[in-house]
Design brief:
Rossmann fold, about 10% strand, Polysaccharide pyruvyl transferase domain-containing protein, alpha/beta, about 400 residues, 12 strands, Polysacch_pyruvyl_Trfase
């Protein structure tokens, strides 16, 4: 059963829509959520332009050669030189994919003040998905709360995330007032996680809705259209985790033991220089210049997916793959129970599909792991009403 996102048969007035989100991060999930939001808006009959904005700090994080601001930058440049092909190839691939698949503004903007040029350019401006409302993020700016948009332009959000621990900040009255002030003139507010609904609803007059991540609005067939060909010619487990996962030895050991049970090799994708550390666990590093097209391919063709990533899990569901979420251990010894992943698993009623890395010392640990075949017809019976409701929200929010 495939779901689809088509324009309703009733006539819709085409809106000129601007989208601001974390589209420029050289991160698979960030790019694909931006692409999916763009495609969802377009399929509803509107024109969508991604505002090509990213802060210098975000650009610094992904550029190959770092400007020399500290001794660490010298070391980073030496490391980049040692892995020149890996770094430059991945950077070029990402940039080319962004330019090819995203309909972006002609100019790039790195200063929030420059965005005043768009104050009244669009009929609607959408604050998109990803953690764009996480004020603790190093690449956050109030532009993602649409502080540059004029009074005559409709402001809406779709699946904006406030990060995995927003309820821990409820006692911060200054932060609450900040959100309250900047969201006061939004026409529609939709967030990705239920915790964000709980946090924001007491602060604003609008009804705050929870919607699905935009990647879930597109079908596997639509992603097939941009996916790279198969990359690995043998059965395999694809393990996807962000840059720092090699520091989490418990998670890596959990993946090792799980893979041994299945008798399959583990392939990982380069997400930063710490990814090289995963080799010591016997994991195989695939083409390290891999871009989002290849990321889709690696999930599509995997025999099993292990993911510590929200979007790694989302694409496992989209492609109906056997999967488990790897719950790593925080520096203080607690499990990383990020509610972004918990929210998705609860929505799909797949909470049992988790590997808890703090339990690996138990020799019988894997006996308690749910290895049953996932009934995706049942999963989509739960998901489809939420996908359709999310689609309806977006269609209504974009009306002009």
């Amino acid at each position: 059963m495939e779901h689809n996102l088509q324009v309703d048969s009733k006539e819709v007035a085409m809106a000129n829509v601007g989208l601001i989100t974390y589209h420029a991060s050289q991160n698979q999930g960030s790019f694909l959520q931006a692409y999916a939001t763009q495609q969802a808006i377009t399929r509803l009959g509107h024109q969508c332009t991604v505002i090509d904005f990213s802060l210098p700090m975000q650009q610094y994080a992904y550029q190959v050669w770092k400007p020399l601001r500290s001794p660490k930058d010298v070391l980073k440049n030496i490391f980049a030189l040692a892995h020149y092909r890996d770094y430059t190839g991945r950077y070029r691939n990402f940039v080319e994919t962004q330019r090819t698949l995203l309909h972006m503004t002609a100019e790039h903007y790195s200063d929030p003040a420059q965005l005043q040029a768009f104050a009244d350019t669009f009929d609607v401006v959408v604050a998109g998905s990803d953690q764009i409302w996480n004020t603790s993020a190093w690449d956050y700016d109030d532009a993602y709360l649409l502080n540059f948009v004029g009074n005559h332009t409709k402001k809406v959000s779709y699946a904006s995330s406030m990060g995995g621990h927003i309820l821990d900040k409820q006692s911060d009255m200054t932060l609450a007032q900040h959100y309250q002030a900047l969201l006061s003139d939004f026409a529609s507010i939709a967030v990705r996680e239920q915790d964000a609904v709980r946090y924001l609803q007491p602060l604003v007059r609008q009804q705050v809705q929870q919607v699905v991540d935009p990647t879930l609005l597109l079908t596997s067939a639509e992603y097939d259209a941009i996916a790279a060909p198969r990359m690995i010619d043998e059965p395999y487990i694809f393990y996807y985790a962000i840059d720092a996962i090699d520091r989490n030895a418990a998670a890596a050991r959990a993946v090792q033991r799980f893979a041994a049970r299945l008798g399959l090799p583990v392939y990982v994708m380069w997400t930063g220089n710490r990814s090289y550390g995963l080799k010591k666990y016997g994991f195989r590093l695939v083409d390290v210049t891999a871009d989002p097209r290849e990321y889709i391919s690696l999930i599509k063709h995997a025999d099993h997916v292990l993911s510590a990533s929200f979007h790694g899990t989302a694409f496992s569901v989209i492609y109906r793959k056997p999967f488990h979420v790897v719950r790593g251990v925080n520096p203080d010894g607690t499990l990383n129970m990020d509610n972004r992943l918990s929210s998705l698993l609860a929505l799909a009623q797949l909470e049992a599909r988790q590997l808890f890395a703090d339990r690996t010392s138990d020799n019988n640990w894997l006996d308690d792991v749910d290895m049953s075949v996932i009934d995706y017809d049942t999963v989509y019976a739960h998901l489809m009403p939420e996908i359709q409701r999310s689609r309806a929200y977006l269609a209504k929010a974009l009306e002009v």
